[in-house]
Amino acid sequence: MILDADIKAQLAQYLQMMEGDVLLKVSAGNDKVSNDMLELVGELAKMSPNIKVERTNLDRIPSFSVNRIGEDTGITFAGVPLGHEFTSLVLALLQVSGRAPKIDQKLMDQIKNLKGEYHFESYISLTCHNCPDVVQALNVMSLLNPGVTHTMIDGAAFKDEVESKGIMAVPTVFLNGEFFESGRMSVEDILAKLGSKPDASEFADKEPFDVLVVGGGPAGASSAIYAARKGIRTGIVAERFGGQIMDTLGIENFISVKYTEGPKLAASLEEHINEYNIDVMKSVRVEGIEKKDLIEVQLENGAVVKSKTIILATGARWRNVGVPGELEFKNKGVAYCPHCDGPIFEGKHVAVIGGGNSGIEAAIDLAGVVKHVTVIEFLPELKADKVLQERLYSLSNVTVIKNAQTKEITGTDKVNGLTYIDRDSGEEHHIELEGVFVQIGLVPNTDWLSNSAIERNRFGEIIVDKRGATNIPGVFAAGDCTDSAYKQIIISMGSGATAALSAFDYLIRN
Ligand SMILES: Cc1cc2nc3c(=O)[nH]c(=O)nc-3n(C[C@H](O)[C@H](O)[C@H](O)COP(=O)(O)OP(=O)(O)OC[C@H]3O[C@@H](n4cnc5c(N)ncnc54)[C@H](O)[C@@H]3O)c2cc1C
């Protein structure tokens, strides 16, 4: 039995929600993965009278497509979509059966209006928590637009294909046979990359806001909710709703919630925001800010949005190590997400640059998957918590090199090594390896403020007072983009609330 009793019980409830018949067209051989796939498809068909199965020949063996009777949707799963992809399979069954996908009408229209042929292939691993978002987004696009098709490919089942395409990170998406993008993406992100971004005309008639929040992470969401609860006109502009938590697997310190996962928390934030009258502008990047009579923010599409007060909550992103080879080999052996990309390096030798908490957590995590991990730390000692260091040193397949300055990540078409300088002796060393995980902290997303009058410290963090006020009257800031002492979800949310209450206070006094 490929599905255990608990999963079957849950699945039975979901399958009852199917609204019509679905035809699975199956292409299988005699290998083990084909047998597993046939077993999965067989169990699904036994569980719902709405699921029909027929044998066919598809491009990949094993694979199966999910169709309406008499109408192909273009959705195909190559391999066995269990693990994190099981949800993608269940959603595909429900949506193909007639249940509407949970995306807003504007996005549906954007997808339906795409012109041309888009054949997507997404390479995933079943342990990757970022992959289902991409798979589910592309499946919805296939469902809504007959010009779009999507095949999810489990890299573990199609190793030769992964090797020949030089794929070293998941999810990696190909469009019409060419590399398209790597990493987590929402429907909005994919549409934006295809050139279908919200048009400047969509912003032309917007009345000025009382509070406009820039950033849709925990700080921005909290600011917007606190502002809207005062009954004032509130808007939120975000390039990628959810922010860093979209890249976070387990969260155990969001007080009152013992355990959650980043994407789940991001979905709850969005749901909470949607309870209020907040104008949410997603997939839009802000490129400038200027104080005139009102405060004006310039969007990347050329539109200008005005507000009486602004809350900057643009957060932070991974810091690059900034050595030759890092950018050239990004997704060709240079990676930033151990949870996502670790499985691709199974049985291989990798390095982790950085000996802080995130670096050592990554090294411990990777040691369970790869053959060997070398940790490279610039300082003479690791900075990670003692408990993490003890765990690291208990592992037999880890080497720690301290006081080492990474000089270059080497490779030809993909990473083949790393050169570092021993800071004690000045000697140069080269290690042969196949992957490098960069884990050296974060930089604030404030570069776009460089032509503004808003004061930042030498790290680029926005300087705020205890009320979240910047040096410009009416402009407030919150979360990881500020000079706050600690960068955490709960702290960002708290500072978002502070900034919103301060903005409200400013409005009633001015
Ligand atoms: C891998 C990882 C694991 C973590 N684990 C934990 C944990 O377990 N517990 C914990 O408390 N914290 C954790 N953190 C830290 C936590 O995620 C951050 O402190 C928190 O997300 C900061 O929230 P924020 O809203 O300030 O910024 P972000 O989450 O960075 O959000 C910034 C928002 O601004 C948007 N934005 C940026 N620039 C622009 C622009 N120019 N125009 C428009 N929008 C823009 C972004 O798209 C995003 O919506 C983790 C972080 C990482 C990376």
Overview of this protein structure:
This protein is α/β, with parallel strands linked by helices and 510 residues long. The chain is 28% helix and 27% strand. It has helices at 5-15, 32-47, 86-97, 105-112, 131-144, 159-164, 187-193, 218-228, 262-274, 338-341, 357-367, 386-393, 489-509, and strands at 22-27, 51-55, 63-68, 71-78, 118-124, 148-154, 172-175, 178-182, 209-214, 234-238, 250-251, 260-261, 278-282, 286-291, 295-299, 304-312, 316-318, 334-335, 349-353, 372-376, 398-401, 404-411, 415-422, 428-432, 435-438, 442-444, 475-477. The strands form six sheets. The chain has an eight-stranded mixed sheet, with helices on one face. Strands 9, 10, 13, 14, 15, 16 and 27 form a seven-stranded mixed sheet that branches. A five-stranded parallel sheet has the order 18-25-19-20-21, with helices on one face. The protein starts with a helix and ends with a helix. Flavin-adenine dinucleotide (FAD) is lined by residues 214-220, 237-241, 243-245, 247-248, 251, 253, 285-286, 313-316, 445, 448, 479-480, 487-490, 492.
Write the layout of secondary structure elements.
Elements (H helix, E strand, L loop, with lengths): L4 H11 L6 E6 L4 H16 L3 E5 L7 E6 L2 E8 L7 H12 L7 H8 L5 E7 L6 H14 L3 E7 L4 H6 L7 E4 L2 E5 L4 H7 L15 E6 L3 H11 L5 E5 L11 E2 L8 E2 H13 L3 E5 L3 E6 L3 E5 L4 E9 L3 E3 L15 E2 L2 H4 L7 E5 L3 H11 L4 E5 L9 H8 L4 E4 L2 E8 L3 E8 L5 E5 L2 E4 L3 E3 L30 E3 L11 H21 L1
Parallel strand pairs: 1-2, 4-6, 5-6, 9-10, 9-16, 10-13, 16-27, 18-25, 19-20, 19-25, 20-21
Antiparallel strand pairs: 1-3, 3-4, 5-7, 7-8, 11-12, 14-15, 15-16, 17-26, 22-23, 23-24
